């Protein structure tokens, strides 16, 4: 069997893969999946709009109906319903093309299309195929110096793809074809240009972040297009200029997360060098009690901390104290506790000074508390065990603190509750190996002077053997389990007999 000291010297590298963090725990991320009521008026009111739409549809000169678009939009804002036929949608798009120089008519036409999509998502195909997405990008370029037009077009682009913005609008399901059309038309570049041109326009920054997230989509090619256009930099600038505004903060956080893509390490470096860590932390401090935003920001910081360079940036900006504050303020959010444990584990890899700093601010106690509170949540237990493993690694003082808090019984209890979860078992055994190797905890497990410690000994051995039996196909897990058993048996005949007996039964 392998020596336990070898195990204790190899703590995991920083972990924060995008696929390991569930952004869906942020309630605002799922808004686009829920149909929201818009409070439209009765069908009788719809007749007013239908008449005006029929005028546009029947006209041989669409350019004459800019004012008609404005009247329809005014009635929409008052709550009137819109039920556009395919031919009416085509007529509205044609009208927008002809009145493009009229910024007010342009914005009103874009709104009509948004509401038509809201009433019937099938209309989105017509809007896309008739060139409305390309038209919005063209309008942004034509009216590059008009912030209001830029905002209206950003709202339209986001709504035509996925995320509707505005009290009167409902989100639509994500449309990858629409996102691809926007990218082909140069939408990402146009939106980034608008954000750079008008950095102080709060509403524009909010809408533009939403548009960029939708344009990038969930495919690496789309995400890379937005990154290359400067999406990371403008999102960070939006936080710096408007971080106090909750809506801007939420949209910018969502955009930053979407831009992670698959090239994680390279993107991590880009985020760190662009100042994302500092901007995210500063924004979170402005909204300390906003749980949803804190969770989004914590996820971003955890992902960012997957490189040691970014861990150093995070620590330099007060990251240890910051993570601790977040855990204390939102102890009722298990997902936030999970990602905070993950961040502490990553920070611990900077070495003993950072490990000591985490202990000093109460980090070990907070991790143990999270594990106790959310004992049935496997992900909290997984990251809690990993954090204890990294904090105790080659650090006797931290190990003593973990033992004082009954860390070994808690880890064993976690392994018993989640015995079928191989990830929990793996991190649990890693934590046990470090604790046993550093502080000779095999003697602790064998102690007959303390009734609590006496109960730990057979339970700990049994938990490890049970886990090895349940996950016998996992070679690395078997190796680490063997290390734990050898450490428990070394110098303790009673433990060795117990292990031999259980193995014989197995």
TrEMBL record:
Keywords: Repeat. SUPFAM superfamilies: ARM repeat (SSF48371). Residues 1-22 have a biased composition (Polar residues). Coiled coil: none annotated. The keyword Repeat applies. The keyword Repeat applies. Residues 1-41 are annotated as: Disordered. It comes from the Eukaryota. Transmembrane segments: none annotated. Residues 29-41 have a biased composition (Basic residues). This is Armadillo repeat-containing domain-containing protein. It comes from Guillardia theta (strain CCMP2712). The lineage of its organism: Eukaryota, Cryptophyceae, Pyrenomonadales, Geminigeraceae, Guillardia.
């Amino acid at each position: 069997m392998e020596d336990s000291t070898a195990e204790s010297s190899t703590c995991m590298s920083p972990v924060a893969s995008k696929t390991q963090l569930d952004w869906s725990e942020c309630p605002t991320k799922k808004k686009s999946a829920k149909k929201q009521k818009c409070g439209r008026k009765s069908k009788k009111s719809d007749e007013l709009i239908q008449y005006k739409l029929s005028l546009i549809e029947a006209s041989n000169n669409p350019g004459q109906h800019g004012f008609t678009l404005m009247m329809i939009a005014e009635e929409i804002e008052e709550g009137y319903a819109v039920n556009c036929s395919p031919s009416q949608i085509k007529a509205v798009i044609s009208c927008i093309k002809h009145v493009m120089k009229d910024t007010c008519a342009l914005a009103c036409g874009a709104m009509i299309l948004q509401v038509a999509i809201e009433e019937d998502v099938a209309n989105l195909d017509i809007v896309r195929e008739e060139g409305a997405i390309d038209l919005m990008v063209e309008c942004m370029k034509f009216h590059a110096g008009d912030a209001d037009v830029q905002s209206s077009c950003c709202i339209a682009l986001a709504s035509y793809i996925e995320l509707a913005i505005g009290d009167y609008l409902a989100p639509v399901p994500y449309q990858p074809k629409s996102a691809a059309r926007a990218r082909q038309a140069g939408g990402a570049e146009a939106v980034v240009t608008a954000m750079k041109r008008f950095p102080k326009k709060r509403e524009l920054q909010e809408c533009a972040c939403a548009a960029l997230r939708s344009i990038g989509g969930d495919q690496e090619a789309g995400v890379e297009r937005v990154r290359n256009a400067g999406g990371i930099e403008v999102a960070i600038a939006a936080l710096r200029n408007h971080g106090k505004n909750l809506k801007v903060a939420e949209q910018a956080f969502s955009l930053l997360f979407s831009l992670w893509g698959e090239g994680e390490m390279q993107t991590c470096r880009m985020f760190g060098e662009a100042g994302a860590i500092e901007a995210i932390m500063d924004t979170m401090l402005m909204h300390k009690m906003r749980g949803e935003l804190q969770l989004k920001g914590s996820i971003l910081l955890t992902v960012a901390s997957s490189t040691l360079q970014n861990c150093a940036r995070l620590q330099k900006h007060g990251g240890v104290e910051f993570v601790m504050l977040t855990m204390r303020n939102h102890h009722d959010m298990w997902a936030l506790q999970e990602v905070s444990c993950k961040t502490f584990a990553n920070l611990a890899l900077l070495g003993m000074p950072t490990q000591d700093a985490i202990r000093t601010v109460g980090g070990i106690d907070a991790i143990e508390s999270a594990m106790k509170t959310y004992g049935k949540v496997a992900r909290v237990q997984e990251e809690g065990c990993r954090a204890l493993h990294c904090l105790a690694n080659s650090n006797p003082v931290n190990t003593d603190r973990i033992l004082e808090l009954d860390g070994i019984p808690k880890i064993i209890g976690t392994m018993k509750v989640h015995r079928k979860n191989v990830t929990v078992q793996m991190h649990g055994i890693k934590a046990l190996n470090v604790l046993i190797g550093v502080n000779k905890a095999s003697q602790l497990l064998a102690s007959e002077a303390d009734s609590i410690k006496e109960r730990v000994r057979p339970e700990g051995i049994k938990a490890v053997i049970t886990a090895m039996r349940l996950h016998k196909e996992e070679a690395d897990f078997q190796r680490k389990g063997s290390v734990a058993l050898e450490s428990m048996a070394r110098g303790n005949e009673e433990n060795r007999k117990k292990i031999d007996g259980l193995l014989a039964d197995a």
